[in-house]
């Protein structure tokens, strides 16, 4: 049965769409692939849990990634909850405390309250995924169902986009949100995020992005806006209006009362790097700040009059700078 499913998937995906697809050329390759998928399912079913919010009554999925019970899920699954009911595939129920969330990445954490040890999956790295790689999706569609184990969906990586979101053709529905996307070694490489109207094309928050927000989420911090919003008054900013030129990002304006103004930045300065990462696009700057909060400090390398300089700047809230400008 599994072989038939794999064959149908391979036939339906046009080769031209998947330039980096792993080769499956004969029955032996197909059997190897089948064995890999079966191993992932056998080893990771117990780590894939259903999450129910007692606050809003909604349910989603999650995956345990540490022996002491750390759970990764989607930010929109935890919503305003402080505690979640965790339902294991065998029906056992436990409680978990909601930790932090980066809503812009749709990434969140919770922690099982009991002592454990708990079954857990290894955390992988979505950066290593290539278009066409095989992946396995699991979750609890429509919520926990005692008549079945977490359904298994098999597919391929179709695209990778900004903020480390990964698109696959694994079929997902409501209730799967927050569930794990595994590579063929059984490592968590994504968390189910946006389920599209075409259920064959779905987005997953990549684990590389999760890692960028890891410490702040562990510390219980919540920030960001689902889908992202440049007008979010709570988002962190330097207080620089930048303009892209042939030589890089030039400072056009330094709003009074902002952190860059206090640090002595001037119009005409050329921003080179932030925290060691080269910055040549405004979009890159926005992506870098997705994992930061107001009050955190960043190191800015820039050029002024041919001289290279470095300043440490404490990020501020967009709303605070805007209010200062209006006064």
Would you kindly provide a written description of the structure presented here, covering whatever features stand out?
- This protein is of the alpha+beta class.
- The chain has 2 domains: 1-225, Thrombin, subunit H (Beta Barrel); 236-326, PDZ domain (Pdz3 Domain, Roll), CATH 2.30.42.
- The chain is 20% helix and 34% strand.
- It is built from 8 helices and 21 strands.
- The chain has helices spanning 2-12, 27-44, 75-78, 207-212, 214-218, 259-263, 282-289, 318-326, and strands at residues 48-52, 59-64, 70-73, 83-87, 93-102, 107-112, 134-138, 152-160, 165-168, 180-182, 188-195, 202-206, 222-223, 236-237, 241-245, 248-253, 270-274, 277-278, 297-304, 307-314, 316-317.
- The strands form 4 sheets. The chain has a 6-stranded antiparallel beta barrel with strand order 1-2-3-6-5-4. A 6-stranded antiparallel β-barrel has the order 7-8-9-12-11-10.
Features:
2 domains, disordered N terminus, Pdz3 Domain, 21 strands, 8 helices, alpha+beta
